[in-house]
Amino acid sequence: MIGSKILVVEDEKILAFNIKSSLQNIGYTNIEITDSGEEALKKVAETNPSLVLIDICLTGQINGEQVANMIKNHFSIPVIYITDYIDKSNLNKNSLNEPFIYILKRFAEKDLHIAIEMALYKHQLERRLWEEKQRLIAIINSMSCAVVVTDTNGYIQMMNPLAESLTNWQQNEVYGKDIAEVLSLIDKDTGEAIGNLATKVIEAGTVLRIPENCILIAKDGTKIPIGDSVAPIRNQDGNITGAILVFQDITQRKQTEAQLHRNAFYDALTALPNRVLFQDRLKQAFERSKRRNNYRFAVLFLDLDGFKEINDRFGHGMGDDVLVAISRRLESSLRSGDSVARFGGDEFTILLEEIKDVTDATNVAKRIQDTLKLPLHINGHQMLITASIGIALNSSSYEQPENLLRDADLAMYHAKKQGKARHAVFNFL
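The chain above was modelled as a monomer; its predicted structure follows.
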């Protein structure tokens, strides 16, 4: 680094010229000399030297150590202190105990050369490390996920702007805090605290997923569902030096999942369970009946009487309104543990669980028909809607739940042949 620009700050003129001569002998040619701290700061600002050699005992309004600190802190330029043997006992007091940060006034040119080259090399390494750190910080800050970095104890070292936004904490508030204090996490279902994920991943030594149903309680009390992962940070030797949490607000994802679930298992018009969900519940009831001898249930298959005439006369919009109104009446006629589903079109199915005998099922059918006798008032029209209901009770003779549903359907057709607003039990056909 012979071409480096060096500024010598020394108020003893003879010593200053001796230092310049030594530098020239070594091979440095771009050298400037000044004798005051104020002038040194001015030259540093104007010429941006590669390195500054400064007398620590510089006289003037600001001493050499103050000038050196300003140069290092404001201009990021390496500084080598010039001192004499008298000052050697005070090296620690003046923070000169680092190698190659000072040189004695009675130096050999070889020592001066080594000190300058090592100071420049050290500064270059520090600059590269600083630039790499800034590059990593820029990458982390530009990520579309929240990021929090901790040390091996789970204490926060940094967090990116998105993490600040989600937690409602600022980075300057959280540095050195236990991550569990800042990232207050609970299980949505149990309400229990999840704890310090950083220390858990450091103990495990592997990447862990953020637990399902994890809720972040922000500083202002806002509750946010989050998801993603926590990973250990390792150095070049493979030793764990901390942890990094990457997470994001998954509110939209949860809403999308919930909507997909509703689309898959619920009727869009009536909001009742659909055919798929009803058949699943029927299957579960069927399996329970195999395990419990005293468990009885029944399936009701319901079809509205003359519904086609409503669509033909008033249009499908009115027909949809009627189906929604009927759905609410069916729900109001059942116990909380029973299920009613829109099976398709104007057909509905009902699962009655924990019944004693066929009378419980027929009583429900009667209650439904009594409810439907009350006129509907929709869009300025009064309507009377009736339904035919078929009933099938579970028994050991059924091998598949679909067969029970089939028999309830057959019973419904039998009731419809007998006239409107009737019900029939398959066993009595």
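Residues 148 and 159 are 4 Å apart (CA to CA).
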